[in-house]
Amino acid sequence: MSAEESATPAHxxxxxxxxxxxLAAAVAEFTENGYARxxxxxxxxxxxxxxxxxxxxxxxxxxxxxxxxxxxFAPATVVGTERRGLTQTMARSLAESTAPGAERLDPxxxxxxxxxxxxxxxxxxxxxxxxVGSRLAGLIGGDEAxxxxxxxxxxxxGTWLLRAVIGxxxxxxxxxxxxxxxxxxxxxxxxxxxxx
Amino acid sequence: MSAEESATPAHxxxxxxxxxxxLAAAVAEFTENGYARxxxxxxxxxxxxxxxxxxxxxxxxxxxxxxxxxxxFAPATVVGTERRGLTQTMARSLAESTAPGAERLDPxxxxxxxxxxxxxxxxxxxxxxxxVGSRLAGLIGGDEAxxxxxxxxxxxxGTWLLRAVIGxxxxxxxxxxxxxxxxxxxxxxxxxxxxx
DNA sequence: GTCTATAAATGGATAGAC
DNA sequence: GTCTATCCATTTATAGAC
Lengths: 196, 196
What we know:
The structure is a homodimer of 196-residue chains.
Chain A: H1 15-37, H2 40-47, H3 52-58, H4 61-73, H5 86-97, H6 107-114, H7 118-140, H8 145-166, H9 169-172, H10 176-191
Helix pairs in contact in A: 1-2, 1-4, 1-6, 3-4, 4-7, 5-10, 6-8, 7-8, 8-10
Chain A binds a DNA duplex (18 and 18 nucleotides) through residues 8, 10-15, 18, 39-41, 49-56, 60-61.
């Protein structure tokens, strides 16, 4: 809306807007198709630019992926911010987000679909440990917080995999409420005090 | 060792032996590199034949994959065959097989690394439900056996993912014994009687 | 700042000789 | 039964015009 608009005749656009559009498109494409199958052409098209812009703004596909991962993992998802009722919150949130008809733009999906690429795993690991991992560990507390947090994430990731990605009949057709109960009972031992 | 040996001069070999070699190589390659990154050329080289043979014996890469999945999932792995001590057995087996220095030719790895390819997920789902899924459900028993079994597999898959594939520091460096204890406490609710 | 055109490599699958 | 040679599609990344 500024005077910039007419600085150059045709396809002139803001640099940060383009960068942002590419990044948003990248998160979506990587989440939906994984690292290998997400093409720079498709990402660019989704962002309304040409494939070339990706290298201009992010250096390479891998560079773009690194920023996309950070963007995807930064917001607080499955793991909330409240210590109270952590188990129930996680279980319910997990059951609802992995349900057959749900949204599907989740960091867990991005992680699962990109785990097969060596170039992506290092980046993903840093993203997990820096964001959702340390956040969950902080909520759990205690000296075993890190391991317990990672096991909680493991259950979440596995549930995403089998229910939302693979789509096994038993999990896809399961009732969300009952599933949340079962998930909560599995999370209980690692979220509450020690279980020696 | 038969008279077949000298029927043709040079590269004459048994058809079933070649087929078997390709299949074994395919399981290894798909497990190590995933569906997308496993090339027919590499699989062929590993089997000691040319890439062309794969199409001859299995029609296509996807056809080969289907048989490789069946081959990988058929043997009884993490889930044993004994009902007694199921929880402890699973937990210990899982902790040991996902340890940093371990073998790494597991159906769970194959599943994880191929889950990003749509052409592979249907095949993988059938493999799970037909083999390890129904086997575990049979051991658990009860009317909720299927869902409970899938949740057990979810925890196993997630542990494989975070510990062996992604390699988060907390899980990679965790003590196997303590990890087995924690895993057992998470598996307990779904392997034993109801948890309503 | 964005485009078109192309480079350079790699993928799966096929034809035809031996 | 196995090979060599090739086709055709697709990929990321780059060069240079506007």
